[in-house]
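We recall that each integer encodes one residue's backbone shape. We quote one record:
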Amino acid sequence: MAAPTEHEDSYEQEETEEEPKAPKIKDTPEDIKLEAIVNTIAFHPNRDILAAGDIDGDIYLFSYSCTEGENKELWSSGHHLKSCRKVLFSSDGQKLYSVSKDKAVHIMDAEAGKLLTRIPKAHDVPINALLLVDENIFATGDDEGTLKVWDMRKGTSFMDLKHHDDYISDITIDQDKRILLTTSGDGTMGVFNIKRRRFELLSEFQNGDLTSVCIMKRGRKVVCGSGEGSIYIFNWNGFGATSDRFTIQAESVDCIVPITDNILCAASSDGVIRAVSVLPNRVVGSVGQHVKMSIEEMAKSRDTRFLASCAHDELIKFWDISSLPHMKVNDYRRRKKKDRRLKALSNKAFDTGQDFFSGLVDSTEENSKKEEEEEEEEEEDDDSDSGSD
């Protein structure tokens, strides 16, 4: 073998003297790739940690960072025998709750991934929905429409009610922890009083499955997503019939996450995540997308900086939503333009070229000043219907 030349020696010396490159900081954490479709995700309430559950029943805990290459798997668990349907952290972040197609409820130590409590046959059929009410009480909903509310101080359920004819898709509760709301594949919203431990009423049937529910507008409005692409709005204490509805020009609204009191993110089977204003009812832009992949679930980080989403592409993606809390949507109309494209609201979102605004109220330059003044005067009177069917 020939001896190294002088040129080679100097090259090697230069190479060793090069300083290591500074780590690259991105706007959002990198995608997390799993080996199966992820059904559910949840952010930790006070740390940069994300939990995920997949169709194989495995649960993962990741730390995430905007520094390139810094996302790390902290632990994984295979305690569930079948698909994990929902994961949620306790309010202090010390416990991780999960429900599964195997009909079981698991409560784990979030730090170590150790199983603390298991309710093996919590329901007679697979469980689909979960809500944590406080440190002791949680609610579960199953594939046949049964709602159970549990008190872990006693280890049993104190409410076991079936008023839906199809699966319970989502559960939420008011700020007073008194009125619990459910949505179902039968097209109705259920109202339950957990203080009095009783069923109150079902809403009228809506078109298609009701897929998700949240409370907005300082507790005055209940918003539901539907499988046929509409968003339904109910007045608080007017749960029987909708006060308003509008379509978002999507195949479906599979899940919704409130970002502020006026803006939510809606995910669809077309893979697009839309930012949607509620009263005034309007799609304001695109937050991101899983290209042509149905989105299973979204979650908002504790500081409203990131939205995470999981889809059939086996990816968990992060989106920058820090601009949404500062967005103002004016309540005035504009003539519909041809080929109006969905505005990208983050660097990673792109224009799909569809007219997502067709049929929705919008803005005009001519009367914008006048309408803005009227909106300010009427801001406190938001309870009226927008009339934007």
Notes: DSSP finds two helices and 28 strands in the chain.
